[in-house]
Specification:
By secondary structure, this protein is mostly helical. Helices cover 88% and strands 0% of the residues. It has one domain: Up-down Bundle (Monooxygenase), CATH 1.20.1280.290. It is built from three helices and no strands.
Amino acid sequence: MKDIVGLAAMIASILFVLIGMPLQIVRNWQLKTTKGLSRAMLFSATVMYVLWTWYGWLSGDRYVFWSRAPGCALGAIIVVQFVYYDALKRNAAK
């Protein structure tokens, strides 16, 4: 039963990350802005994904590891978008 629940939780987490975050990344890219996104929420979510992934790795829990690893990568992409589009906006204002 533990493995069934772990697998279901992993699938649900991966679906959330692989549907919601890529849509946000594409939206940011199309609009060339991250306006409207909460920096605090995004940075805290990315840190959370990194810590849970690390914990999953250290504890040998493949469900925790694989359900959080995509969030690390996609969260990092959105963080890079924040930095990049902020730099574009500052340069355009000069």
